[in-house]
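Methods — Computational structure assignment.
A single polypeptide chain was analysed. Its primary sequence is given first, followed by the predicted tertiary structure written as structure tokens.
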Amino acid sequence: MTAAHHGIGPWTVRDLLALPEDGNRHELIDGALLMSPPPSPEHQELSFHLHTLLRSAAWSAGAPVRLWEGVGIRLSADGALVPDLVVAVRNPSRATWPLLEPDDVRLLVEIVSPGSSTRDRTEKPYLYAEAGIPHFWRIETADYRGRDKPLPVILRYELVALAEYRIVDTIGAGETLRVDEPIPITFDPAALTTG
């Protein structure tokens, strides 16, 4: 048993994978273990609606991708994050399974949660950009500072340089999001909160 199993850091991805399933979300940033409670029903409903829309669009377009919710991404030996939704290549590498490799990921989505809003808005996008993930979406559902748009709001980022994202769209409910990559899709963010 490593020191990390006794609560002393730094933790490694190997230590993380040895943790028992407890219903919480465990992540690592620079060897520090982060734990989040299970997401709320509203959060999961929005994630489900987005997953359904993206899966349908991928199937219609014949896009060579796979979609997962709550799957981990290995960022380094002491870094692993669990985004809300992952779009990856159809046949990802199994080198670090059950974690995905950043090279296999085309899009990550984070739905901002009250308990992790700072991490979702700042740390995670930086780490995803540093890992070279080409597309990132952040979905705001409450307490969003850009109150000029109705919720939910999707902020769409694209990688423009090593470790740097640029916001290319900010689309609120009642507007239309149009995307060509990694999956061609057009939808109103309001569709994510209606049954």
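Note: Helices lie at 13-18, 41-61, 117-130.
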